[in-house]
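hey so u asked for the seq, here:
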Amino acid sequence: MSKHFRILALLLSFALALGCFTACGADEKKPAPTTTAQKLEEVDYVAQLKLNKQSFTKKLEVTVKNFVDGDTVHFNVPESEIPGGVLKARFLAINTPESTGRIEPYGKAASNFTKERLKDAQSIIIESDTAGWNVDSTGDRYLVWVWYKTADMQEYRNLNLEILQNGLAIASNTGSNIYGSICTSALDQARQLKLNVFSGKKDPDFYDGPAVELTLKELRTNIESYRDIQVAFNCVITSNSRDTVYVEQYDPESDMYYGISIYYGNSGLTGEGLQILTIGNEVRIVGKVQYYENGGTWQIAGLKYRVMKPTDPENIQLIASGKSGAFPVTDAQTFASGKRDVMVTDPETGEEKLTSFNYADLAMHTTLQMQGLKVLDAYTTDNDTSSSNGAMTLYCEKDGVKITVRTVVLRDSQGNLITQDAYIGKTIDVKGIIDIFEGEHQIKVFTTQQIQIQETTT
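ran it, structure tokens below
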């Protein structure tokens, strides 16, 4: 064999060996790639936690009076437990995003979650962390665990833990409570699964715009803090007077309505925009908070409606129709000098404090009705240059309390002007809104139907 052939044969053998090694290696099973994070196996911690009715803690079966938000509910309880028969519950171990003050992302989701879980409950049990009821830092609410069971459940579920497990709350002294360990585990899992508040995603129910999303309670109780600031809120339109509508919104925590006037003159609203401001519509208002010096009241102005961008977060928007003002029956003493204690949140610090207000100041521009007012005297505007020519101020009395009723120009069904003689000396039932003139609260009436003369019996 020649030298060249031997060299060629050697090279050929080397190539065959290399090919065999490569082919054989390709048939071997490669190891699975390793990752730094394995897929989390989701645990239902709520199913693991059981209600022990025999434990040392204070427990009570209750029913819902008012849903407030994700971590606050008012329950009906026996008078022997809480004077007044209402326990204002603040859920232990959790803090859900706000939905009753300055609205936060996922606040409405948390509130709806709590409502959906409890509204169909066959049984609800509240449990303290100790052998007695404990108040929170405000001194007005009680710290509790909430257990519920529907008709198709065998066991009670702990709602506090369920809210944490679904990523709808952050911790609030979680580890220091009787169920602290399992609550911490549920919270950690929600973070790892990136649920809701931990998702980093935009809340689909939260308007992402320049306006501060809030409730009318938050606005009315902290109104100076929002001067000249653009705000947004949902409300029902109850009255309309020339270029101003009046709106209100119910707050379940204080069990009262809050309102404000909306000035739409000079706003440029036409067509669809003006239709949104129809009495009985539930709407989303977006505008700037202003103090109206001439009227001595606060109002919202600067409304916008872009026809080509109907879902623009800076637009006013129609939510629903077919609503109406509440017109709660109000007694004269409450209207004239009543007080109301309301939980107020400091917009800067977030601190909550029970604060006392004059009732009429707090309920400014909301609807009411008052019955049995005796009309003692009246004044009619008589100024040919004024559009209010013919409007009346009725000076009334009820149970020794002086009440003033102010009307717009009223006409009967034939178009004839109704004068003060129709009311003086009569007893009337009135429906209107709370207004103010020269520092004095009054009831403002917009239609003839809102004043009813009581029939006299002989």
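Confidence is low (pLDDT under 50) at residues 1-38. The first strand starts at residue 59 and ends at 69.
lmk if thats what u needed
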